[in-house]
Amino acid sequence: MQMPQPDASILARKDRLVAQLQAILPEGCVIYDERETKAYECDALSVYRCPPLCAVLPETTEQVAAVMKLCHAEGVPVVPRGAGTSLAGGALPTADSVILGVARMNDVLDTDYPNRVIKVQTGRTNLSVTGAVEEDGFFYAPDPSSQLACAIAGNIAMNSGGAHCLKYGVTTNNLMGVTMVMADGEIVEIGGAHLDAGGLDLLGLICGSEGQLGIVTEATLRILAKPEGARPVLIGYDTNEIAGQCVSDIIKSGILPVAIEFMDRPCIRATEAFAGAGYPDCEALLIIEVEGSEAEIQDQLDRIITIARRHNPVELRESGSEEESARIWLGRKSAFGAMGQINDYMCLDGTIPVSELPLVLRRIGEMSQEYGLDVGNVFHAGDGNMHPLILFDANKPGDLEKCEAFGADILKLCVEVGGCLTGEHGVGVEKRDLMGAQYTDADLEVQLGVKDVFDPKWLLNPAKVFPLSTTEGRRA
Amino acid sequence: MTPNSETELAEAITAAQGPLHVQGGGTRDIGAPVAGQVLSTAGLSGVTLYEPGALTLVAKAGTPLTEIEALLAAEGQRLPFEPMDHRPLLGTTGTPTIGGVVAANVSGPRRIQVGAARDFALGVRFVDGTGQVLKNGGRVMKNVTGYDLVKLMAGSWGTLGVLSEVSLKVGAIPETEATLVARGLEDDAAVAALSAALGSPFDVSGAAHLDAGANGGQSETRVRIEGLAGSVAYRAARLGEGVCKGWELVEAATSAALWLEVRDVGSLQTKPGNIWRFSLKPSDAPGMAEAIRRAHPEAACVFDWGGGLLWVSGPEGADLRPKGLKGHATLVRAARETRERLAVFQPESTPIAAITAGLRHKFDPRGILNPGLMGG
C-alpha cells in the first residue's frame, strides 16, 4: 500500500502552522509534540501507520470552520477522524496532514420524542446515542460492532451498518440532517428533522463519502421505539449450501427477522475455544433473531423453525430466556476476539448476492489452501455482507503481503458474482487500489468529479477511496 | 425519441443538439416546464433479474410499474415504499415506469416506517449529459464502495443523467393489515395521536390525517398496522387500549382502500387550483396548515407520515411557502404559467445552490437534460 509523498514545504512550515492553529483554537486543542501525535498515527487498520503533522480537537462547529479555512488557505491536507475505529484506514494520516478529530464534540443538542429525532454533535459514540434515549423507550438503530467506541462522525463517513440492518437499514437510512463544514470553511445545513430532500439528495451523497466532501459536526438522527422483546434461535447445518437455502427460504416466506448471522466451521471452532458458548461442531451455524411481543416472537420463531426443520438441521436451539439468548449471542459477539486470539487477522467486508453464498464460501476455502492461510467466515447472511477473517502472522516476513493478496482475491470474487468490495467498512486505503475491479474509469471519473465540486483543492482526506493514479493530477 | 437500448440512449444523448425533455411514462408532469425534444425511456423495458429469496429485482428503467408489481405479487412480494400514482391527481395519462419512480423518488404512506424509494434503490445504470454510460451501486443490500450516486440520482428528475436500469430491494406482502380510524379530531390532537402511535413499539406503517375540508366536512385520522394476523390483532388491541382508545377498527381490504386514497391523495384530486406538498417536522404541520387556512380559507389539507408530509390544495398562483420554512415544499400541480413563474421546487440557500449547480455541470456540462426542471 502506497501513500503520497508528503509535501516538504508543509513539513518545513510545521511550527508556523501549529502557531496559527493555536491562535484560532482554545488552549490544549492542538497536539503537535511528536510523542503525542503518535496516538493519531493509525486507526483500527493498524498495519498502516504514519503520525500526522499535528492533530486538532476543536470544540465547536465554528472552530472546525476556522481550522478548515486556515488549512484551505495554506494548502494543507486535512484528515477527519471520529473515534479512529475504521477498519479500512479511513483515518490514516499522511506526514503533511492535519488530523481533525471531533472527539470533544459529543453533546446531545436536542431530543425530540414527538418527532422521533435526536440531534447530536458527531463526536458522540454510537452506543451513547441510544444511551441518551433508552430510558424513554427509544433507540438508534444502526449498530456497528464497534458501537461502544465508534463515533457518529465516522458512522456517517462510512455509512456504517451493523447486525440489525436487515430490518432497520444502515446509517444513510437513519440520517435526516447534518451541519457540515466545507473544505473552505463554509458551514452548511443539509436536511433536518424532515424527510427527504427538496432538491438533489446531497445528504445521501455525503453519507458514505469517507470524509472527502466535508466535515460533519452535527447530525439529526432518526430514533425508534424499542420493540417489546427479542429472541434468537440457533440452527446448525452440515453444509453451507443448506444453510444458505434455509436463509433464502426464510426471507421468501415473508418473515422479517432483525438479524440473520452466519458462522462457518473454522469460526465456530475458534469461538468455542475462546468463549465456550456451547455451539455445535458443524459446517454452518445460523443465529436468527426476531422481535415483538412474546406471542409475536413465538409465532415468528415457530415459522422459522418449521422452515429450518425441512432442511434437517444438526442442531436447533430456541432461546427460552434472556440467559439463553445471551449464550446464543456470546459466540457470535466474541468471534473477532476469538480469531484475534489465534493470530493477527484481516477482516474483509465484501457483499454478495445471498444466492451466491455456497459458491463463494467454497472458493474461499480453496483459496485458503492455495495461500496457506486460515480463514474464518462470520457475517450478516440476510443481506449478503460477508466478513472473512484471514489469519496471518504480522511478525513473519511476507505474511501480511500474502494476506493482502488473498484478501484482494476474495473481494474480486465478490464483485465477479455480482457483489461489491465493501458493504459497511468503507474503502479507505485498504480497498482503494481495487476500485477498478468494480468500476470503470468513467464510473470513477464521475465520482472524482463530485469531489471536485465539494473540495476543488482536494485537501480533504485526499489519498483515500480512489486509486492514487486516478487522483494524482488533482491532489495538491 | 424512444431509444430501444442503453447504447441507443447513449447515442441519442451524444448526438443531441439542444435540450432534451427526459421522460419515463410521462405521468409525473411536475417541475418547471421544459422546452426540448422528448426523450422517452419507454423503449428500455423488461425485468432483467428477480431473486425473491434475496429480495432483489433489477429492471430496465422503462419497465411499466404494473409489470413489476404483478411479477412481485406472484411471489408474495411488493415494493415496500408504496410509490404513489400521480395520474389521478395530475390528470395525466400514460404508463408509470420504474425509472420514473426512482428518478422522482416517489414514495407513499409506508415511507414513514420503511423508507423512501431512495432507500430501496440499490444500484443504477444511467447515461450522463455527455452520452457516457455509467453505473453506481449494484444489486446487494449493503454497499459502501465509493460515493453513493444512487441516492443522488434518485430524486434528480433526470437532470443529472437518464436512468437506463435500476436495482431495487423488495419486500414481502404481509399476511394482513388493519387500520384504526378516528373522526372529528382537530389537527393538533390528530398529529399528537399519530406521533404517539409512531412512538409506540407497535410498528405503525401508516399515520395520516385528513382535515374536514379534505374529508367532506369531518376530519378523519388513520393508523395502519401490517403483519402476521395474530400480531396485527395484538397490536391493534394494544393501540386501541392506549393512544387510539375508542377508534374504529377496519381490516383487510377496507383498510387497504383507505391507504390507497392517502397514497394517491384521493381526497384532494377534485379540488380546484394548486396542490402543494410540504415535507416538514411533524409537530410543525398543524401550525403550517392553520396559517395557510387563515390566508386561504378554501385550502384543504391531508397529513401523511404522521404529519411530516402535508398535502395542501390552494388557489392557483399563490405561493404558500412561508419565509424560513424548516423543510421543503414542492408545487406538485399548477397551471403552466404558474410553474413558469413560481419556483416549483424549494429554492435553496446560496451555498447549497452552488453545490447543486456544480454537480449539474459535472454530470451534464451542456445543460441539456431537463434543463431548469428543478429550478436553479
Overview of the molecule:
The complex is a heterodimer of chains A (476) and B (376). Chain A has helices at 8-12, 14-24, 34-37, 61-74, 126-133, 152-158, 165-168, 171-174, 202-206, 240-252, 265-275, 294-310, 322-333, 335-342, 357-371, 399-416, 435-438, 441-454, 468-471; strands spanning 30-31, 54-56, 78-81, 98-101, 108-112, 117-121, 138-139, 175-181, 187-191, 215-222, 224-225, 230-237, 259-264, 284-291, 315-318, 344-347, 375-380, 388-392. Chain A is globular and about 70 Å long. The longest helix of chain A has 18 residues, at 399-416. Chain A has four domains: 8-102, Uridine Diphospho-n-acetylenolpyruvylglucosamine Reductase, domain 2 (2-Layer Sandwich); 108-225, Uridine Diphospho-n-acetylenolpyruvylglucosamine Reductase, domain 3 (2-Layer Sandwich), CATH 3.30.465.10; 230-336, 2-Layer Sandwich (Alpha-Beta Plaits), CATH 3.30.70.2190; 343-434, Alpha-Beta Plaits (2-Layer Sandwich), CATH 3.30.70.2740. Chain A has a seven-stranded antiparallel beta sheet with strand order 15-12-14-13-17-18-16, with helices on both faces. In chain A, strand 17 (375-380) and strand 18 form a beta hairpin. Chain A is α+β, with helices and mostly antiparallel strands. Chain B is α+β, with helices and mostly antiparallel strands and 376 residues long. Chain B has two domains: 6-172, Uridine Diphospho-n-acetylenolpyruvylglucosamine Reductase, domain 3, CATH 3.30.465.10; 175-364, Vanillyl-alcohol Oxidase, Chain A, domain 3 (3-Layer(aba) Sandwich). Chain B has helices spanning 6-15, 65-74, 87-90, 98-103, 111-114, 117-120, 149-153, 187-198, 229-241, 252-263, 285-295, 336-341, 350-363; strands at 20-23, 37-40, 47-51, 56-60, 77-78, 121-128, 133-137, 161-169, 171-172, 176-183, 204-210, 220-227, 248-251, 274-280, 300-304, 309-314, 327-333. Chain B has an eight-stranded antiparallel beta sheet with strand order 13-10-12-11-15-16-14-17, sandwiched between helices. Chain B has a five-stranded antiparallel beta sheet with strand order 3-4-8-6-7. In chain B, strand 3 (47-51) and strand 4 form a beta hairpin. Classes of the chains: A alpha+beta (476), B alpha+beta (376). Chains A and B meet through strand 9, helix 9, helix 10, helix 12 and helix 18 of A and strand 7, helix 7, strand 9, helix 8 and helix 9 of B.
